């Protein structure tokens, strides 16, 4: 069975780096743990690293987090669905919201459970995913303020999550001004102005985060050490927290060009033939992992940079080993680094074993 490893040492380096970065800038932060897909072994390790709040977008994952540490403060980072209201109030200390109707349901459920549920109102800053329009904020807040057992603990925004709109200092100033407007109008303190996700880290490193932004939610940079502006690894962070490892089940010298009548493969692709490849061969390795597990090879990068992809079927991945100086054998392992979406899909696969390293 193919397996994914989480490197504890590398993750701890990344976690400590972020802790120090945010502390130096007087900003609170919360790790986003949806990448772990509720895996208890991984969650236990991450939860042991610090006292910060944690975020997730799946209630089943929040339930696992609370089972490991009932006192850990949890944030549900998407507007709740109606069917999930009771569990959101029970397992999420804070939730993101954009609809008054939903907040009213949360209020009613919080009364039933004898709890005060805290919410963060998400504001639209241009990416056009979740968020209320700024011109509606004061009326919206006024209605929410009258609901029992609801505490508006903050406002926030997301960028670069749907339309690719990148954050800027101006957009963050706009967000912080909304918080000041609410405080001035209603005389209520806004505890958190949560400026965004990993995509904001490059602005922080360049000292371009306005003072009003005091909270971040970080997943991708925590697990991949990446600067999402440059797509390069941040100095002093690690990019090898996750590795995908697949066993070699066949190594054979075969023709580069298949023989027979060519039609679309099961993925709907038609192989393009390079005439120069006729009569040539290469060393092909087959790995015990396929599209059922990884969906696509677009988010995988072989650790051995001399390996290239040939193709994939539902259960097998074919690679070219010809240029590699490493002497691969049957039963050996080929390892891959992954981009965020690749790791997320693979972590969600029940066919991939998960190990701590």
TrEMBL record:
Organism superkingdom: Bacteria
GO cellular component terms attached to this protein's record: cytosol
Molecular function terms from GO: alanine racemase activity; pyridoxal phosphate binding
One Pfam short name: Ala_racemase_N
Key words of the record: Isomerase, Pyridoxal phosphate
InterPro entries referenced in this protein's UniProt entry, alphabetically: Ala_racemase (IPR000821), Ala_racemase_N (IPR001608), PLP-binding_barrel (IPR029066)
Ranges annotated as spanning the membrane: none
Co-factor(s): pyridoxal 5'-phosphate
Protein name: Predicted amino acid racemase
Gene source species: Lutibacter maritimus
Lineage: Bacteria, Pseudomonadati, Bacteroidota, Flavobacteriia, Flavobacteriales
């Amino acid at each position: 069975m193919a397996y994914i490893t989480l490197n504890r040492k590398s993750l701890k380096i990344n976690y400590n780096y972020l802790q120090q970065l945010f502390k130096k800038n007087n900003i609170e932060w919360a790790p986003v743990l949806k990448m772990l897909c509720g895996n208890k072994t991984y969650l236990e390790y991450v939860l042991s690293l610090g006292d910060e709040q944690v975020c997730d977008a799946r209630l089943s994952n929040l339930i696992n987090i609370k089972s490991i540490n009932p006192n850990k403060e949890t944030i549900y980072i998407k507007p709740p669905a109606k069917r999930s209201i009771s569990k959101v109030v029970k397992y999420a200390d804070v939730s993101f919201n954009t609809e008054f109707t939903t907040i009213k349901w949360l209020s009613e459920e919080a009364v039933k459970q004898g709890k005060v549920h805290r919410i963060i109102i998400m504001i639209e800053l241009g990416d056009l995913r979740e968020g209320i329009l700024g011109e509606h904020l004061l009326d919206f807040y006024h209605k929410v303020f009258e609901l029992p057992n609801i505490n508006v603990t903050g406002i926030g925004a997301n960028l670069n999550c749907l339309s690719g709109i990148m954050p800027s200092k101006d957009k963050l100033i706009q967000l912080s001004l909304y918080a000041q407007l609410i405080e001035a109008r209603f005389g209520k303190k806004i505890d958190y102005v949560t400026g965004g996700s990993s995509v904001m880290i490059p602005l922080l490193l360049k000292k371009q985060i306005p003072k009003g932004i005091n909270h971040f939610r970080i997943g991708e940079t925590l697990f991949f050490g990446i600067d999402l502006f440059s797509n390069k690894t941040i100095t002093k962070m690690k990019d090898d927290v996750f590795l995908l490892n697949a066993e070699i089940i066949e190594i054979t010298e075969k023709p580069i060009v298949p023989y027979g009548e060519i039609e679309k493969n099961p993925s709907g692709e038609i192989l393009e033939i390079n005439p120069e490849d006729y009569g040539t061969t290469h060393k092909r390795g087959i790995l015990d992992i396929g599209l059922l597990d990884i969906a696509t090879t677009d988010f995988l990068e072989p650790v051995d940079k001399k390996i290239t992809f040939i193709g994939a079927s539902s259960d097998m991945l074919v690679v070219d080993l010809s240029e590699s100086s490493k002497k691969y054998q049957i039963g050996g392992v080929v390892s891959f680094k992954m981009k965020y979406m690749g790791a997320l899909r693979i972590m969600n696969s029940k066919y991939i074993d998960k190990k701590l390293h």
